[in-house]
């Protein structure tokens, strides 16, 4: 293993109140155990590596639920949030500026982390949302549901009120080939050109093209698949089954044969005594991690198929695993300084998430100029929604993100300037045409009067 493994940690949780376990991936050393956590599947995340967040839904039929925050330096829950409906799963964008929740009634909630504001809520599925994942570039959100649908949501569409009004639906793609509940979704590299892999209780994993919106592969497994993870090279993916095995499926296998779906399964790893509920892949250490209902977390060498290390969760089955670079707060040399700073400055975590959308936040005034149809070419949508562009600039500036976001801000500023210039040109054309028509009308009236 390379030295970068020293910077990675593993966090894991259970469906019963067993807390959140945290281990150093290379050494196996356990860090703090975070208390009072009973999370559903896909309900545990690290928000921008700044703090931990987890949804709480002990009873699947409950009419209420909570979202809890833990700081890295304290084992106790520090912030409690109570959304409008029970949230089954959580996901955050790579910068940790936004938190997205999938609801028990099919809604998706989009919060701003720094303020806790609920920015958007929309009905995404007919039944409970079971999976949520961002694409690598954070431009698309992919959701799966108990209704069997996999849907792709472009965030620019979701936050552009003009486009929302014009569009017949908010999603870019709606994949309907699964016949039962979607259990897991992963995306590859490449943003809008990536692949999506979805798993379902119908015992299939399906590979989709984001750019073309089509099904590329349909792979049938001997067991229901509850979890999947993708090899960084995108040569194979791993599928955790209810038979206790981790099946290995090749993405590039020959699909010309009628029975080609069997040819994709090229091997398996077997050591868990119960269902494999969650999988994760460490790109730095090039190891595969699996969690199971047997309460064990196993670390595998994908080349030799040997077990490198085993972690045991303190209590109950494991249903969530995440691998991330070790936050500075977990560095023993810095821990005392962090705790002292927290005492001096008070709670450093963001405020609780809002339950409802503030009606004032919904009022975005669009700069729209209604022009006469003076030519056959309609106005470009960017010129009609210049206010939306300004809002995007403001949001990006508030994020305080890195160079890539700053470049995007500059591009949006240029687009906004060009849009306003186009508006001015159209207005001038309209004014000139109006003046010409008035002059012609007056001149015609003068000629008639003279005759």
Automatic annotation (TrEMBL):
<feature type="repeat" description="WD">
    <location>
        <begin position="122"/>
        <end position="153"/>
    </location>
</feature>
<dbReference type="GO" id="GO:0006364">
    <property type="term" value="P:rRNA processing"/>
</dbReference>
<dbReference type="InterPro" id="IPR045227">
    <property type="entry name" value="WDR18/Ipi3/RID3"/>
</dbReference>
<keyword id="KW-0677">Repeat</keyword>
<dbReference type="GO" id="GO:0006261">
    <property type="term" value="P:DNA-templated DNA replication"/>
</dbReference>
<protein>
    <recommendedName>
        <fullName>Transducin/WD40 repeat-like superfamily protein</fullName>
    </recommendedName>
</protein>
<keyword id="KW-0853">WD repeat</keyword>
<dbReference type="Pfam" id="PF00400">
    <property type="entry name" value="WD40"/>
</dbReference>
<dbReference type="InterPro" id="IPR001680">
    <property type="entry name" value="WD40_rpt"/>
</dbReference>
<dbReference type="GO" id="GO:0005656">
    <property type="term" value="C:nuclear pre-replicative complex"/>
</dbReference>
<feature type="repeat" description="WD">
    <location>
        <begin position="269"/>
        <end position="310"/>
    </location>
</feature>
<dbReference type="GO" id="GO:0120330">
    <property type="term" value="C:rixosome complex"/>
</dbReference>
